[in-house]
């Protein structure tokens, strides 16, 4: 069980890093690649959904970290 949790933790952490890198900063960032231009208002919807997905994955990461902590005890 510990191996499964540890492997899942690695996958979630990689996915979380990718999601954080996709957010746009002061420039366009990776979040603007291949989507509707900002002038049409599509970028705001994409960024909002990306933020929601990042929060969900961060919550899964935190819950898995706590599960790993209690599994070791």
Topology (elements, then pairings):
Elements: H1 2-22, H2 42-72
Question: What does this protein look like?
Answer:
The radius of gyration is 16 Å and the shape is elongated. It has helices at 2-22, 42-72. It is mainly alpha-helical and 73 residues long. 71% of the residues lie in helices and 0% in strands. The chain contains 2 helices and no strands.
Q: Give the oligomer, counting copies of the same chain as homo and different chains as hetero.
A: single chain
Strand content: under 5%
* C-alpha-based Rg, rounded: 16 Å
Flag low-confidence runs. Answer: none
Shape: elongated
Q: Largest beta sheet, briefly? A: none
How many β-strand runs?
0
Number of alpha- plus pi-helical segments: 2
Distance between the terminal alpha carbons, to the nearest Å? 14 Å
Order of helices and strands: HH
Short description:
With 73 residues, the chain is mainly α.
Features:
71% helix; mainly alpha; 73 residues; elongated
């Amino acid at each position: 069980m510990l191996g499964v949790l540890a492997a899942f933790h690695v996958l979630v952490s990689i996915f979380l890093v990718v999601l954080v890198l996709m957010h746009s900063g002061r420039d366009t960032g990776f979040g603007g690649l291949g989507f509707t231009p900002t002038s049409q208002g599509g970028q705001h919807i994409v960024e909002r959904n990306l933020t929601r997905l990042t929060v969900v994955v961060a919550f899964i990461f935190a819950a898995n970290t706590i599960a790993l902590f209690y599994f070791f005890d």
